Amino acid sequence: MKKNNLFIIVLILGLSIACTNKSIDSVVINAKIYTVNKDNFIAKSFAINNGKIIDISEENLDKFYKAKSVIDANDRTILPGLIDSHCHFYGLGLDQEVVDLRETKSLNEILDRLIEYNNKYDSNVIIGRGWDQNDWKNKDFPLNDKLNELFPDKIVVLERVDGHAYFCNDFTLIKAGINETTNLKGGSVILKNGKPTGVLVDSPMRMVDRILPEKNNQEKIRALQKAENICFSYGLTTVDDAGLNKDIIFLIDSLNKVDELKIKIYAMVSASKENIEFFKNNGKIKTPRLNVRSFKVYGDGALGSRGAALKEPYSDDLDNYGKLSTSIDDLEYYSNSIYAMGFQMNTHAIGDSTIGFLVKNYNKVLENAIDPRWRIEHSQVVDEIDFPMYNNKILPSVQPTHATSDMYWADERLGDRISGAYAFKDLLKYSKRIALGTDFPVEKVNPFHTFYSSVERKDLSGFPDGGFQKTNGLSRTETLKGMTIWGAYFNFEENEKGSLEIGKSADFILIDQNIMEIDADKIPNTQVLKTFIDGELVYQNDDL
């Protein structure tokens, strides 16, 4: 009788193992897995089938499944695929083929790079990006005299690092129809002694855009694929592109369908009356890799070019309040139209005047809305009275490296208002969630720089001791959430990504050190070893 009982027990155990030992695509073992679920569960192993996580455990699961592939993490750290909640993905790709003007320390350094480029390519059009006069000894906007001497008969367009100013030669200005009398709402032609200096802030830039050669389809595809490769190497599996025209959106969709673009994109449609009408008639787009349900509206300019709209004048330019990029009437038109369509409104807002108007406008429009998740992109300089206007309907999307890039001069621009600038902790207090991004290519793509800036409030040199306004830094857990599950939430995608849980996409990364535990000063040096999207290996670091 005892032998029979023992036989039955063995049989049951054997059947149980056989039932669980099913064939699947892959299993991850020997990892420290930060799931970022509601309990912040740390696992050791998970199983993947058909691009989804089907099991997750504190013990290795390879003995329970017959996996085609076993991914041994060798005790390394695994995180959910990272989300950059505000970037310019397509712009990053385009920038790979222009003159890099980052970290130039003077106009002469810019000219040297342009001469080198011109000698190499001898193009009729020279485009560059990345200059920042705030990094120069002379922090005034440059004059284009030398640019005119060197390039009297070529189009030369040099974009400021923030994307809110151009520096052009006279040949370009004449071609674009810009002179001392040009006066457009939402921007400025910078003059000296009554003549254009070559610097255009915000709206006049569009006049120059119209004379630049149109990219052909292959050039657009090449830009998108270059950007994808860069993002994968940094562990980004989802990017929120903050402002795309519908032709690029449909190109992305076409590449998705033939498996030539695999990164997941939350595409904000550049707001225009034409685009509003198109999507009003055609509705949202949702595929496994593309989500189109939001509009990017441009509220004002940037702090670095003094284009952000402030309630009081700039502390270092007492006649300048900045300007709205979009009129009050048009902002109200967009908010009412976007709400009626059931889309999300995401508005670029740097200055406290712009933010003050938007939080009031959003709250009014959304009074009866259920779960709209409207976003204020950047939320950079906030008046103390406006912090409580953020809530579960009005959410801040911020960029930690903006704080550590701007901290050297921001107090000169803002004076006492600096206390309400880059105030991530204060924003989180009211919104309960905050999404983190880079605004690349304005800042570098590297999300571990984002993580470090968020937590330590220091730049890569370790400056300043004690951190910049450290009380507004986020914890490591908050920062990780801001780069994963909260980012997914801002995109209405928290049930499909942003954490490693059963039923969600197997978007994850393997990194070379544990950013949740190591000394903070080591965080920026973190390397991505492997990046997976839907369980598929899309990047491997062969150097490590």
Which features does this protein show?
six-stranded mixed beta sheet; alpha/beta; 25 strands; Diaminopimelate Epimerase, Chain A, domain 1; 544 residues; 31% helix; 17 helices; nine-stranded mixed beta sheet; globular
Provide an overview of this structure:
By secondary structure, this protein is an alpha/beta fold. 31% of the residues lie in helices and 25% in strands. The strands form 4 sheets. Strands 8, 15, 16, 17, 18, 19, 20, 21 and 22 form a 9-stranded mixed sheet that branches. Strand 2 and strand 3 (42-43) form a beta hairpin. The radius of gyration is 25 Å and the shape is globular. Mean pLDDT is 95; it is low at 6-19.
Number of DSSP strands? 25
User: β content, as a range?
Assistant: 15-25%
Helix fraction, binned, reads 25-40%
Quote the CATH topology of the domain at 90-209. Answer: Diaminopimelate Epimerase, Chain A, domain 1
CATH architecture of the domain at 90-209: Roll
- The coarse overall form would be globular
Report the sheet with the most strands, covering strand number, pairing sense and barrel closure: 9 strands, mixed
What's the CATH C level of the domain at 90-209? Alpha Beta
What is Rg?
25 Å
Mean pLDDT: 95
Query: Which structural class best describes the helix and strand composition?
Result: alpha/beta
Distance between the termini: 60 Å
Task: Count up the helices.
Answer: 17
Oligomer: single chain
The stretches of 5 or more residues where confidence is low (pLDDT under 50) are 6-19
